[in-house]
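Hi all, long-time lurker, first post. I run a small reading group and we've been trying to get comfortable going from sequence to structure in the token notation. Rather than ask abstract questions, I figured I'd post a concrete chain and ask someone more experienced to write out its structure so we can walk through it together at our next meeting. Sequence below, copied exactly:
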Amino acid sequence: MNDCYLSFKNIGDDNEERFNQYYIPGTKVLRNFLNITNSKKLRAYEQRLVLLNYAKAINVNKTYDFEHIIAIHQALFGNIYPFAGELRQANMGKTIQGEVYYQGNKNSMFLDYTELPYHIAHFNHYIKLKNYLSGIKDKLVFAKELCDVYLFINDIHAFREGNGRTQNEFIRQLAEKNGFILNVENAMNKFKQQGINYYQWFYHYQLNNQKDEILHNLFLDHIKTLDEYKQIMKLNLLP
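-- Answer (accepted) --
Happy to help. Here is the structure in token form:
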């Protein structure tokens, strides 16, 4: 079997078998187009390519629904993984350290993969009903609404890998559409550099539905109006 080949055609309902189909046989390395069989090396190359691929993600068709999210995932990971832009075909969760697993506490698992189409349709109805967050002038109100959209996407966790970066870019684009600047990815990177484990906030949210850590640390503390952002940029450019 080609290491890049990914098919669930003859795989039944056994979740372990479905989950392991994403890996190169005999390894715990995700199937990839780079012919890399070392997980550490794959992560390093993936990070470099994704940085370059953001230029593609910026230019996707911006419909601000789940098709938009899928397009971003395809743009970011299409030259890395064979499952780019495809809904995951196995159940999975993440530990408090952000490690992926397929068995464990049901409360810390993401949605059942068989239910993804239903929840995606629900998301599309929800975001349309919210009028894509247009017309909200108050920065804090917008940040709270944006956080709810973000967590809805995170609960779906549509892809086997790359969910965080995809939803972060979608949220950045959605904020920009409505006159606000918010880069969740940059905020996360700053916390990571400080040795702060932001995965724990999502783990706590999965367990008890408490979103305060995510709302304050990633949204309320970082969102800017366009005028605020321009002023910051102007000050940063001063000698």
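A couple of things your group might point at:
The domain at 48-237 is CATH 1.10.3290.10 (Fic-like fold).
The two ends are 59 Å apart (CA to CA).
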